[in-house]
Specification:
Layout lengths: L8 E2 L2 E9 L2 E10 L2 E2 L9 E2 L4 E4 L1 E6 L2 H5 L9 H14 L2 E10 L8 H14 L6 E9 L6 H9 L5 E5 L2 H6 L4 H10 L4 H12 L5 H14 L4 E4 L4 H10 L3 E3 L4 H9 L3 E5 H6 L9 H6 L5 E3 L6 H11 L5 H6 L3 H7 L15 E5 L7 E7 L2 E5 L1 H13 L1
Parallel strand pairs: 2-5, 2-6, 7-8, 8-9, 9-10, 10-11, 11-12, 12-13, 13-14
Antiparallel strand pairs: 1-17, 2-3, 3-4, 6-15, 15-16, 16-17
Helix pairs in contact: 2-3, 4-8, 6-7, 9-10
Length: about 400
């Protein structure tokens, strides 16, 4: 065999008896040509996955668990370089080869303010050559932060953002005015005292008349830059129709089944959280994601706040007979690729990027990523699989 077992090694290709191809799960040989899947496998010895699953890498359209790596406790922060290095390993170990980090620009400030976002951009620029997964920025813009519109537009025009979502958490925050205990948690994240945070809520509420025009400007800017745009937590059908007309063709975490149904009727993608499937329910009393999938009202699953969720959720759906594995896997590969405009990702087909994962599903309910390949290079291997790679290399 021509490959070594070291991290970031280029591979000639992969073979296995359970490869998820365009024709379904079957025995297949996939040759790699540089970063892409070749039209033929050729005669070169390929990485042998045996009876393990070979699947397209997970594309996570919405993940904000990195915030806990940056600020594991209120007021306790770590450098983004350390945080991203740790997060990169978490992603690969959980089968996520392309991540869209949910970076928030909000009137709240602190962890979800401009300085922290800038640190993320700077760290990504410096670290991309050393990171194993593909790291993108999903800008979560709080709609009432009208003073941040110029900043967000500048980031988009500079190419720092790869996906935009319009968020409005102000109503839920406003309801908590007077609940000092609950608001204090958010004030700590915003790195200010309680009185200051309450003032920020009231200032954001005072901007209500400017929001519609500001969102038109921001959405138009994103479209001109070639970005796809989502709306987040749509509370009712009228809101979903409004955002659809604005150009937001992705509905993230619709708050009712009726909203999800309207999004489906409009031809929009609907996004739910993988943790919802794994846990069997939403932690915020939103629709049950498994029920939405059964009803044909969920097109994409994300990690949301828990990186192991997409893999665990899809396997649970397949194991429980909710969907065949190929259809379940589309929720975390092909569909998010289409929604984000990634035309060369999400499937193991000739010409596509060679992003694949090898999964041991022998223990029901506890799938294990044995290896992650990004752009034809081995970026992660579990110790047991590394030993198998070494054995194959020595036998070749």
């Amino acid at each position: 065999m021509n490959t070594s077992v070291s991290s970031h090694s280029a591979l000639p290709g992969i073979a296995g008896r359970r490869v998820l191809t365009a024709d379904g799960l079957r025995a297949a040989r996939l040759g790699f040509s540089g970063e892409r899947i070749a039209a033929g496998a050729g005669a070169a010895p390929l990485l042998d996955a045996g009876d393990l699953l070979v699947l397209p890498g997970i594309i996570d359209l919405h993940g904000d668990a990195f915030e806990r790596a940056v600020m594991p406790r209120p007021g306790v922060t770590f450098p983004y370089e350390n945080a991203l290095h740790d997060v990169d390993r978490q992603l690969l170990a959980n089968g996520i080869t392309t991540e869209f980090h949910g970076v928030t620009l909000s009137w709240e400030g602190g962890l979800r303010g401009e300085p922290y976002a800038e640190r993320m951009f700077d760290a990504l620029d410096r670290m991309r050559p050393t990171l194993g997964a593909r790291h993108n920025v999903h800008l979560r813009f709080e709609t009432h932060h009208v003073g941040g519109i110029d900043t967000a537009r500048a980031w988009i025009q500079a190419g720092k953002v790869q996906f935009l979502a319009l968020n409005d958490h102000l109503p839920s925050m406003a309801k908590r005015l007077g609940n000092d205990r609950k608001l204090l948690q958010y004030a700590e994240r915003a790195e200010c005292d309680l009185d200051t945070f309450q003032d920020r809520i009231r200032a954001a509420m005072a901007c209500a008349d400017e929001v519609a025009g500001a969102m038109r400007q921001l959405t138009e800017c994103a479209k001109q830059a070639g970005l796809e745009v989502a709306s987040h937590d749509d509370p009712d059908p009228a809101t979903r129709r409004y955002y659809h007309q604005l150009g937001c063709r992705i509905a993230e975490f619709p708050l009712t089944a009726e909203v999800a149904r309207v999004a489906h009727e409009l031809g929009d993608f609907t996004v739910f959280g993988g943790p919802n499937v794994v846990r069997g329910r939403s932690h915020t009393n939103a629709p049950n994601a498994t029920e939405m999938i059964q009803a044909g009202l969920c097109g994409i699953l994300t990690s949301d706040y828990y990186y192991p969720a997409p893999l665990a959720a899809t396997m649970k759906l397949a194991d429980n007979g909710v969907l065949p594995l190929a259809e379940a896997w589309a929720l975390v590969s092909r569909n998010p690729a289409r929604a984000a405009g990634l035309r060369d990702q999400g499937a193991l087909e000739p010409g596509m990027l060679a992003d694949a994962i090898i999964v041991d599903d022998s223990v029901p309910g506890v799938p294990k990523v044995c290896a992650a390949i990004v752009g034809g290079r081995l970026r992660y291997a579990a110790q047991q699989f590394e030993m198998e790679l070494l054995r194959q290399a020595q036998a070749a």
